[in-house]
Amino acid sequence: MTGEVAEDHLNLSLSIGETKKRKRTDYHNYSPFKNLTIAGVLLARNRMLHPTAPTALHHNINGLHLIRLLLFSAAAADRHDSSAAAESLLYLYPHLSLSGDPIQRVAAYFSDVILETILTPSSHLYPSLFPSPSPHEEFSAFTSLYRTSPYLQFAHFTANQAIIEAFEAEEHCNEGSLHVIDFDVSYGLQWPSLIQSLADKAKINKPIKLRITGFGRSEAELKETEARLSGFAKGCRNICFEFNGKNREENKLIDLNLRENSTVVVNSVFNLDMLKSSTLQLIQSLSPSLMILVEKEGSRTVTTSRSFLSRFMESLRYFAAMFDSLDDSHPSDSKERLRIEKNYLGKEIRNAVEINEKEEEEVVLMKYGRFETWKEVMERSGFEGVMMSSRSVSQAKLLLKIQSHCCTMEEHGGGAGFRIYERDDGRAISLGWQDRYLVTATAWRCNSL
């Protein structure tokens, strides 16, 4: 799927307004017919999940038409017309596949989001319809994506480079001590490369002290992360490592035991939704040397809408590019790609579209906005952007070369592949796929004014 075609697919103005004029059919409130329609949708979905023959697009159904049907169904679900939404899904599922082309695959996962939405009132009747991946399955998918795509490595390596440079800039007064506060330590995969880099620069008679305060989803995950990182650090000479795990749900910057003469860095990777104004104020009170912000980038300047359709369309644009990029690193019959999409990206899609009634509008604005949007929020909260170094840019470009399958746009004459973008006069670095930004890395310091 080329960038031009993808843009045609996903920047459709559509005639969704026309669908709103459509009169709801009489059987909308006639439950026997409605139940028959849902039963047909579930059967079609089951056939998609368990095909008896290789799936291919029908000769009359192209990718553009699939996306139109998908958005038609999403618009119906948004206005609570479950019958119209189900009708579209009934037609959609036979033309979708979890192992087909990027459009078929991404449409399959977003069709499931619509189906789950219209089944919500009676979801207890379908307890195993949308099973969540087990912790082991999710971890396996995450590590596969980490290994085979520059997506996660770009985020972590760029952040780590900025952290190392902040530490080096204060080397004369930090007594070889670095404290990183990580708002979502997750599996801890960001930190082995930082530990190794610090070990390489440490002197034999002067070890570097590294403390990581990591917020995690559960106590079990935090213990596993601590064991993983501590085990790695033991194999590195001249590193004194300490890990302090905290429950992510609490998200309290208290009892951090900040020490004098230590470089303090706040790290937030794919975690923008947690950075409310109150949290940013607390970060200001810590006076960190640097705050690293790496985030998935939407395409809207302002996103104040909390509607299902708004989130659906924005997320569809983003994940269509993600699914397309995976074709660059995985063959068409790749089981590893299927695991990544099913056990990691599929869950990310559901989280992105799901509307949490308790979610503050400020969080909605930041979570789904463009870089320019969260830049404005950060500046309004008393932070100023820091120049990203030439070393960060060179490292990011080198990453794409190391990932030999990740061809750059220059190598294809500007037609396809991953590319590194320098933005905002050097204050931001983005990883893009074709002509769309996927991840943007920035660094911030507290404004002294």
UniProtKB/TrEMBL annotation:
<dbReference type="Pfam" id="PF03514">
    <property type="entry name" value="GRAS"/>
</dbReference>
<keyword id="KW-0805">Transcription regulation</keyword>
<dbReference type="InterPro" id="IPR005202">
    <property type="entry name" value="TF_GRAS"/>
</dbReference>
<protein>
    <submittedName>
        <fullName>Protein SCARECROW-like isoform X1</fullName>
    </submittedName>
</protein>
<feature type="region of interest" description="SAW">
    <location>
        <begin position="354"/>
        <end position="445"/>
    </location>
</feature>
<keyword id="KW-0804">Transcription</keyword>
<comment type="similarity">
    <text>Belongs to the GRAS family.</text>
</comment>
<feature type="short sequence motif" description="VHIID">
    <location>
        <begin position="178"/>
        <end position="182"/>
    </location>
</feature>
